[in-house]
Amino acid sequence: MNNAMTFPPIEELIPHRPPMVLVDRVVQVNGLETETAFLVTPDCLFVAHGKLSEMGMLENLAQTSFVFLNYFFIEPDEVLWDKKKDNLGVISTILDLHVAKLADVGQELHTHTLTELVFTSDFLKICNIQGTISVDGEVALQATMKMLLQTKDE
Fold it and tell me: pTM score, two decimals?
């Protein structure tokens, strides 16, 4: 896993579909770290008064983390998220949150996550995620959260 990888379209890496997609592209997956980018558009569900809300930024962190899970927990030629499976991913706890500023429409989020595996089984993954969102080179949001992913075969 490194930044020389070519990544598939984001719809192949996360279960979200428009208008809930808050990641445009994967920049890199390297070890336990993931970086993504997202351009804030006026039609985004989490935009109000020309700004992306805190909830939208947290959702962006969660989707960035899901990209990581797709590369870390899978076997070669296997996908973590599969349309044929009943998967559920949730932010279970926000342990720490600092919002320095909200992104404006037209700005691009650069999101960096560091994921620590807490628990894994065939049907459940629990991770601690430390995330930072930068806008125009400045930290806009920092958060630590716990994410659960439940996977269930058909």
Answer: 0.85
Residue 5: what residue type?
M
- How many CB atoms sit inside 10 A of residue 7's CB? 16
Backbone angles phi, psi at 102, to 5 degrees: -100, 145
Taking phi first (over 0 means left), then psi (-120 to 50 degrees means alpha), and beta for anything else, what does residue 152 get? beta
If DSSP states are collapsed to H, E and C, what string results for 66-109? HHHHHHHCCCCCCCCCCCCCCCEEEEEEEEEEEECCCCECCCEE
pLDDT 10s digit of each residue in the chain, 154 long?
Answer: 444 578 888 888 888 888 999 999 999 998 889 999 999 999 999 999 999 999 999 999 999 988 887 766 555 555 555 555 566 778 899 999 999 999 999 999 999 999 888 888 878 888 899 999 999 999 999 999 998 888 765 5
Tokens found for residue 22: 């808050």
Give CA–CA dist 48/130, Å, rounded. Answer: 26
Q: Cβ neighbours of residue 82 under 8 Å, at least 6 residues apart?
A: none
Q: Which of 91, 92, 101 is nearest to 141 (CA)?
A: 101
